[in-house]
Structures are given as C-alpha cells and as structure tokens.
Amino acid sequence: MSWWGYWQWRSQLPPGYLHWIAPFGWLYLFFLALTLVRHYQTETRPAWLEALAQPRWLLALIGLVVLLALPGWLEYSSKEVWVVPLFLLFTLWAMHRLRGRRAPPLVRRLNEFSFGIYLAHPMFFNLVDRLDPDQRLPLGLYALTLAGVGMAGSITWNLAVNRLQWGGLLFGKRLRVA
User: Fold this and answer.
1) Where would I find the H helices in the chain?
2) Are the C-beta atoms of 172 and 115 separated by less than 8 Å?
3) Half-sphere exposure of residue 41, counting CA atoms within 13 Å on the CB side?
4) How much is the pTM?
5) What is the structure's pLDDT at 59?
6) How far is residue 66's CA from residue 59's CA, in Å, rounded to a whole number?
7) What is the Cα 51 distance to its own chain's centre?
C-alpha cells in the first residue's frame, strides 16, 4: 500500500500513468488472493484476515471517502489511490460472508470472462472518463457507469477477441467454469 501512498503524494503525474500499471503495486493483491484461496474452505483463518473482514472497516473507509469527497479532496476516477483499499476491504468482507457458499450461475458465467475483464476494463474505464471529462456525473451514477461499461465492454471485447486464432494470447482464453 505504501507504493500507492508514495505516488499519491509525490507524483506530478495524473492518476493512471506508469505507477498505476506497474506490477510492483499489485503484488500484495496476488498474495492476498493466495491467502484467501488457502483459507477459503478452512474453519481457521489468520487473525489479521478475520479482523480486516469485519464490516466496520469497510464502513469506516466509505465514510472517510465521503467526508474527503465533500470538500473536493478526492477525484472521482477509477485510477485514484483510494479505490485500492476500498476494493481490498470489500473483497475481504465479501469473501468472509460468502465462505462455503456455491456461486450462482451468473457469477460462474462472469468468472469465465474474469481474466478478460481484468485485462480489458481499463480501456472501458478510460472511455467513461473521456466521455465525462469534467466529471459532472454524480458519484453513484459514475460508479454504475464504470461497472456497466467496464463489464459489458470487456465481455464483448473478450468474446470478439476470442474468435480470432491468436485472440486468447492477447486477452486470455475463455474457459467454461464448472
């Protein structure tokens, strides 16, 4: 998280440049994913994982984001640093709540496209930011627009690219999830 903090406070670049896509800044998420997978079906989890999965942390962060957004101290962009801890705490809370449950058909279907969504969504987030350059959309509508355009665009792109012989090399081969 210090990687994001450094770039938030020291960088002269606007959000979304090299510091955002550099793999170093995402390593902790891969380790978190490994930890979640390792402990998904077990009854015992590390204490820090249980503590961070409590909804109070997520609610506190949402409250902080709202408080900092009111005076205009936060920009509404999918590439802002504050999105990372929000995503992290939401993931921990959701995984805690969903432990042991079978994924519904819609989630399994979306999982087929997950790698393609992961790779392609920045293109579609950027499209939303370009269509609303002055950020006039309210935060809720902006978030819904990002989710809708990002997911629909990425899935459509993934379907189109996977029709090409070499398409799977670019955006991952779509596999059926059992």
Assistant:
1) 2-10, 18-21, 27-39, 47-52, 55-69, 83-98, 105-112, 114-131, 139-161, 167-171
2) yes
3) 1
4) 0.58
5) 93
6) 11
7) 21
